[in-house]
Specification:
The structure holds two protein chains of two kinds. Chain A is 11% helix and 37% strand. Chain A is mostly beta strands. In chain A, the strands form four sheets. Chain A has a three-stranded antiparallel β-sheet with strand order 3-7-8, with no helix packed on it. In chain A, strands 1-5 form a two-stranded antiparallel sheet. In chain A, strands 2-4 form a two-stranded antiparallel sheet. The chains are: A mainly beta, B alpha+beta.
């Protein structure tokens, strides 16, 4: 993780349902690549962090120190993907649900 | 009652398997995860749907949920009746299509003997040529959980005799929607051939099953994954299930109360970074309390400022708390 870039970007995270105790009823997948967002949204923000207009304004206000205590914008997921999960319900019937926003495609400053 | 058209526009997925004598057993760890349960057709069908719809952006049957319901075989008045318990459907799931899948064998009627005429001594009895294969009827009834009646007839379908043994699918959407609207979530299906049942079939991988394609309106809410997947040992019974994982202890989970200082904003493990307060509102830790229900609602976490006003507006009505049992907490601390 140490050679990760400082700037807001997507970081690798593999989630194994056995680690969170859900593997007993989740048939498939047993694990999936969820990723996560981390990194700085410092002024001036590069285009790559795709700042919203509000984030741009907030980081300028913070940089010029007009108002004390303003934090820098947050590095959060921007585009996300859904994930189909096959699991057993409480009656041991097989269920398929396609959950939205389960893995990160891109990150951005907000 | 509804006489449902014999074959309406079934979801493409359902047709994918109709007419199969026996689908090839699915490969992959999903089948392994199902264990012996992967040998029946409903599991094979669901695994195929999973492989088809777990690619990005695909939507099963136009929705986001497919529920399968296995049959429970019972003998009523010497007839085989299959019962389906649909109670696990969530209120937020809008039914799009429901299909009934069953395996039918061709039924060649026995040649019938003509009673010999009395006067003609030892005349050879003639055999009538077998008539056309018997038509079968599918009868659907619905009943609420604890009634002893046979239930309300919801639908009847005439079935053309199949040329050979094969799986068929019938659209029973109106039947399931009507039964759910009336709160009768126990459905029975009877394959009635009119003539005496040739012996009651035993439970087999050829048991019929129901698939319900739905659109879960609550799936986009924050944390919908926790509502359906965040639970505790779902097979908690007196004796642990033979196939249950070793760590699913049969002992009841103890409830872990944490200091609720107001709505939680994130999913941090409560109690890791702060000792439960011993203030007037602190909820005492009860060892003997069981989980009120297997599903725990999540709580949103107060912002930093709100946490400073600890105890002022504790127990905000709409707030929710994230509970973990001791075992999970120890694992988390270790990590």
């Amino acid at each position: 993780q140490w050679d990760e870039p400082r700037v807001c970007s997507r970081r690798y995270l593999k989630v194994d349902f056995a680690d969170i105790g859900w593997n007993e009823w989740i048939i498939s997948p047993k694990s999936f690549d969820a990723y996560y967002c981390a990194g700085a949204c410092e002024f001036p923000m590069p285009k790559i962090v795709r700042p919203s207009n509000h984030a741009t304004i907030q980081s300028i206000v913070r940089a010029v120190g007009i108002v004390p205590g303003i934090p820098e914008p947050c590095c959060v997921p921007d585009k996300m993907n859904s994930l189909g999960v096959l699991f057993l319900d409480e009656n041991r019937n097989v269920v398929l649900k396609v959950y939205p926003n389960m893995s990160v495609e891109t990150c951005a400053c907000r | 009652s509804h006489t449902v058209p014999a074959r309406s526009a079934l979801p493409a997925a359902a047709d994918g398997l109709v007419g199969h004598k026996d689908a090839q057993w699915p490969l992959g760890d999903a089948a392994a995860a199902l264990g012996p349960g992967a040998r029946d057709m409903v599991a094979v069908h669901m695994l195929r749907l999973y492989e088809k719809y777990s690619r990005r952006g695909a939507r099963p049957g136009g929705g986001n949920t497919v529920r399968s319901f296995r049959a429970r075989l019972e003998v009523v008045n010497q007839k085989a009746v299959y019962f389906f318990n649909l109670t696990s459907m969530q209120d937020s799931e809008m039914i799009l299509t429901a299909t009934f899948h069953f395996y039918s064998e061709p039924r060649w009627p026995q040649a019938r003997e003509v009673p010999c005429k009395q006067r003609a001594k030892n005349a050879s009895c003639r055999l009538l040529p077998p008539g056309p294969p018997a038509r079968q009827h599918l009868l659907f009834r619905s009943l609420s959980q604890n009634t002893a009646t046979q239930g309300l007839l919801r639908g009847a379908m005439a079935l053309a005799p199949p040329p050979r043994g094969l799986w068929q699918a019938k659209d029973i959407s109106p039947i399931v929607k009507a039964a759910r609207r009336d709160g009768e979530l126990l459905l029975s299906a009877q394959l009635d051939a009119g003539e005496k049942d040739p012996g009651v079939p035993r439970p087999s991988p050829h048991a019929p099953y129901i698939l319900v394609y739905a659109n879960d309106l609550a799936i986009s809410e924050p944390n919908s994954v926790a509502v359906t997947l965040q639970r505790y040992d779902p097979f908690q019974t007196g004796d642990p299930e033979p196939g249950a994982a070793p760590n699913s202890s049969a002992d009841p989970r103890v409830r872990r109360a944490t200091q609720v200082t107001g709505p939680l904003q994130d999913n941090e493990l409560p109690g890791l970074d702060e000792r439960p307060a011993h203030g007037p509102h602190a909820q005492p830790y009860h060892k003997h309390e069981l989980w009120p229900s297997p599903f725990r609602a999540l709580k949103s976490r107060p912002g930093r400022k709100d946490r400073r006003r600890k105890g002022q507006d504790a127990f905000a009505a709409s707030s929710q708390v994230l509970d973990f049992d001791e075992k999970t907490m120890q694992k988390a601390r270790r990590k």
